């Protein structure tokens, strides 16, 4: 997704000789695009990434904000994306990934919500399985084999369900083989 957004922005900028009238920065262009497509996962993730890691492409006033203030703006962009598409499990997967990446709480709750909204969604099952598998490895490293075994069982359940959803997809087979 990150590469896709970058490619879309590069193509947009290449098609323009300059930013459109009234648009002072690439950050502002992303903001405007997101206003028109509030639930777009790639745009929201891209703008949040700009706020957190690429302030140099924001307008001067936003560049001068403290890092914590830009992080709050980024978080708000992601939450607005979810609010625009509350029934779509993909937005909860995206917010969970964002929260994990930035060490924010409630990433696991987003996975639970994604699973509730899309129990037969292949991506949901694969991501939830991977999360359970990762947690199992962490628990093993902490010396909790019983808890790890339970998480490995959850991962197996997700991957087996993914096989039923998409039996011709190789990923569930490969992931089951890693357990």
Please provide a written account of the structure.
With 179 residues, this protein is mostly helical. 75% of the residues lie in helices and 0% in strands. It contains ten helices and no strands. α2 runs antiparallel to α3 (41-53) and α9 (145-165) packs antiparallel against α10. The protein is elongated, with a radius of gyration of 19 Å. The mean pLDDT is 89.
Fold topology:
Blueprint: H1 2-15, H2 26-36, H3 41-53, H4 60-63, H5 67-84, H6 89-101, H7 107-117, H8 122-141, H9 145-165, H10 170-178
Helix pairs in contact: 1-3, 2-3, 3-5, 5-6, 6-7, 7-8, 8-9, 9-10
Provide tags for this entry:
179 residues, 0% strand, 75% helix, elongated, mainly alpha, 10 helices
Give the SSE order as H and E letters. Answer: HHHHHHHHHH
* Large-scale geometry: elongated
Number of helices: 10
Which structural class do you get from the secondary structure elements?
mainly alpha
Round the mean pLDDT to the nearest integer and report it.
89
Distance from N terminus to C terminus (CA atoms, Å) equals 27 Å
Rg over CA atoms, rounded to whole Å, is 19 Å
Residue windows where pLDDT falls under 50 for at least 5 positions: none
How many strands, which pairing sense, and closed or not: the largest β-sheet?
A: none
Q: What is the total tally of β strands?
A: 0
**Roughly what percent helix?**
over 70%
| Percentage of β-strand residues | under 5%
